[in-house]
Specification:
Layout: E1 2-9, E2 13-26, E3 30-31, E4 34-35, E5 41-54, E6 57-71, E7 81-89
Antiparallel strand pairs: 1-2, 2-5, 3-4, 5-6, 6-7
């Protein structure tokens, strides 16, 4: 991804805008030792997010849309976007 600071205070906090690209791999499901050929996929997603951090705290939230999707077998295309929020604290 690429990042651009929106605002910051040196040695205290950072607030940034990010544009990220990431991928997901979902393995095929196995039920009672039998592989379901109509499950699993590969995706590449792109989207913006916001990042806020201090020396001990990190928070990031964003949304991404699928720009590439390879579904295994016969499946409906239902994953059009992905939303994530991450929070961390350093003890």
């Amino acid at each position: 991804g690429v990042c651009k600071n929106i605002n910051y205070k040196s040695n205290e906090w950072i607030f940034s805008w990010m544009l990220e690209m990431h991928g997901l791999y979902k393995q095929r499901n196995t039920i009672a030792g039998i592989i379901n050929p109509n499950s699993g996929n590969n995706e590449i997603l792109v989207g913006p997010s916001l990042w806020f951090s201090t020396e001990r705290f990190i928070a990031q939230g964003g949304i991404s849309w699928a720009v590439y999707q390879k579904l295994f077998g016969n499946q409906f295309n239902i994953d059009n976007f992905y939303v994530a929020v991450d929070i961390g604290w350093k003890f």
